[in-house]
Automatic annotation (TrEMBL):
One of its GO terms (biological process) is actomyosin structure organization. Pfam families: FERM_M, FERM_N. This is FERM domain-containing protein. GO terms for molecular function: cytoskeletal protein binding.
């Protein structure tokens, strides 16, 4: 009996041991499982963080790619717009060139208006005639300048152009107006004359001016517009011979040499003889000096300076 009770008690201890061992194993398993679950959670958290970082990186990359793409698109658009603008500018330039060429062709195709030319004739103070062509719309200044240039005249304020209207009335040409509005007859005919007589002819600076004044006074006296006495006619005639022929030479100047000159409206043989007598006394005078003496004596006449035209 003692052996039987011993044998029964022994397995109870073994079962307890086994149960204790089993409980220890379970707790170990549980602890292992808990430890594993914590490690798994940590690894999962790391994986999640990595995945989030990757997603963020992908999003950032997408944004950068989109930004780069947008910049490239903008550059492409700018290049395209510049190209279109250049083409438009070229088109405009070609259109402008074409329009200008068309205008030039039209101008060339148009028949130019014929400029009407009128001949003008001017009798100068020395008896010669000057002629020139003028436009029909030309002003009197154009013709007056041409005449003055022809005779090399600088002191022009004393001179003018005379013309006769349809009633044979003499008129001064207004150089500031068109000629066609003042004269109707064709061709245009004028005479170049002294318009304003200088009160002191010695103040004239140009020899040509004094010469032209002298020619005008000769014509005024010979025509009777500037009346004077017999003695004055003879004296002025003698200065004219000295200026035109020089010193008296009996071999060259016979009795008839004076007949080609007109000194007075009613020139007589007595007057011609007196002129020749006085001409002999002017030996040594140059033509310019003779003209100056002529003017100095002519300006003393009562009608000198009066508009005789």
């Amino acid at each position: 009996k003692k052996q039987k009770s011993y044998s029964i008690s022994e397995p109870k201890d073994e079962t307890k041991k086994r149960e204790h061992l089993a409980s220890e194993e379970e707790t170990a398993v549980d602890e292992g499982e808990c430890h594993l679950s914590e490690e798994e959670a940590q690894s999962k958290g790391k994986l999640e963080d990595i995945s989030e970082n990757l997603q963020e990186a992908e999003v950032g990359g997408d944004k950068e790619e989109k930004h780069v793409e947008s910049q490239s698109d903008k550059e492409d658009k700018e290049i395209i717009s510049e190209a279109t603008e250049n083409t438009e500018d070229r088109k405009r330039e070609t259109k402008e060139v074409q329009t200008s060429e068309v205008k030039i062709e039209r101008v060339l195709q148009k028949t130019p208006k014929k400029i009407r030319i009128v001949e003008a004739k001017v009798v100068l103070l020395d008896g010669t005639e000057y002629s020139c062509d003028l436009e029909k719309k030309a002003k009197g200044q154009v013709l007056f300048d041409k005449v003055c240039e022809h005779i090399n005249l600088l002191e022009r304020d004393y001179f003018g152009l005379l013309f006769q209207d349809h009633t044979d009335q003499k008129n001064w040409l207004d150089i500031s107006k068109e000629i066609k509005k003042q004269i109707r007859n064709l061709p245009w005919q004028f005479t170049f004359n002294v318009k304003f007589y200088p009160p002191d002819p010695s103040q004239l600076t140009e020899e040509i001016t004094r010469y032209l004044l002298c020619l005008q006074l000769r014509e005024d006296i010979a025509s009777g517009r500037l009346p004077c006495s017999f003695v004055t006619h003879a004296l002025l005639g003698s200065y004219t011979l000295q200026a035109e022929l020089g010193d008296f030479d009996p071999e060259e100047h016979d009795s008839g040499y004076i007949q080609e000159f007109q000194f007075a409206p009613n020139q007589t043989k007595e007057l011609e003889d007196k002129v020749v007598e006085l001409h002999k006394t002017h030996r040594g005078l140059t033509p310019a000096q003779a003209d100056s003496q002529f003017i100095e004596n002519a300006k003393r006449l009562s009608m000198y300076g009066v508009d005789l035209h």
